[in-house]
Write a structure and sequence with these properties.
This protein is α/β, with parallel strands linked by helices. 45% of the residues lie in helices and 21% in strands.
Length: 253
């Protein structure tokens, strides 16, 4: 089934030629580091806690080690000393997760965790693929899509309003509504920050608006990307070169 995910769209927006190397030619781009390993481990913790499964410190530590081992096996360099520093930071987050959800949502039920999206994109042979971290339903009948994001101390105003960052939730909402035939006005979107180094409010949940105009803009970007991918238009985005893992390599002369 031909599909595109938000992460693939993000790579295309970063640089269409980078997208070609990674998604068409299947070359290894960015494969992760200690931060992504931490994020994956703490995501697993959040899911298990929402499902009311027993999660202790050892569970987090083993999940973190497992993901670091994958990096090691793939010969991906990461900072071991920094990873060791992250262990107590992750442990400190464990008891804060559910109380933060309880405080933010006044009376809720858990609809799903790690829900898979594989929804047809209009006028295309492509499907939109994604995984929604959590969906809650509150007593007012509204659905709430939540995406967990691990970070250091938090996000500044620029990051919170970043176009592409917020498009993730906008697209998740659009295709979640299509999947379940739900009125978009009944669905709200939120990021939940899991802060490693903050002194207080280690878990912060905040709403991101995803109204009709924003949805229109996100879908426009998605359709432009698909048009260029389908027509094999892989133009280099020169402003991204310095941040690209293929910069000045034989793969991208």
């Amino acid at each position: 089934m031909t599909h595109i995910s938000y992460s693939e769209l993000k790579n295309w927006d970063f640089c269409p030629f980078y997208h070609k190397l990674v998604h068409i030619e299947k070359l290894d781009g960015f494969k992760g580091n200690e931060y992504t390993a931490f994020g994956s481990a703490i995501h697993e913790v959040c899911e298990k806690k929402l499902l009311q499964k027993t999660v202790n410190e050892d569970f987090f530590v083993q999940e973190f080690k497992k993901r670091l081992k994958v990096l090691e096996n793939d010969k991906v360099e990461f900072n071991l000393s920094r990873a060791i520093e992250m262990v107590p930071q992750g442990i400190a987050l464990l008891p804060e997760i559910i109380p933060a959800v309880d405080d933010y949502f006044d009376g809720y039920e858990i609809i799903s965790t790690e829900e898979k999206l594989m929804v047809p994109i209009d006028d295309s042979e492509y499907y939109f693929k994604g995984y929604i971290d959590a969906v809650f339903k509150t007593s007012d009948g509204k659905y709430h899509i939540v995406d967990w994001k691990s970070c250091s101390w938090g996000w500044n105003a620029q990051r919170r309003s970043d176009r592409l960052t917020t498009y993730q939730l906008t697209l998740y909402k659009h295709y979640y509504c299509k999947k379940h035939n739900i009125d978009p006005s009944l669905v709200e979107t939120h990021f939940a920050l899991l802060k490693r180094t903050a002194k207080k409010d280690l878990v912060e949940i905040f709403r991101i608006t995803s109204g009709p105009k924003k949805t229109e803009n996100a879908l426009k970007l998605l359709n432009i990307a698909l048009y260029n991918i389908i027509n094999k238009r892989y133009i280099k985005k020169r402003t991204s070169c310095e941040k690209c893992s293929f910069h000045k390599t034989p793969e991208c002369p």
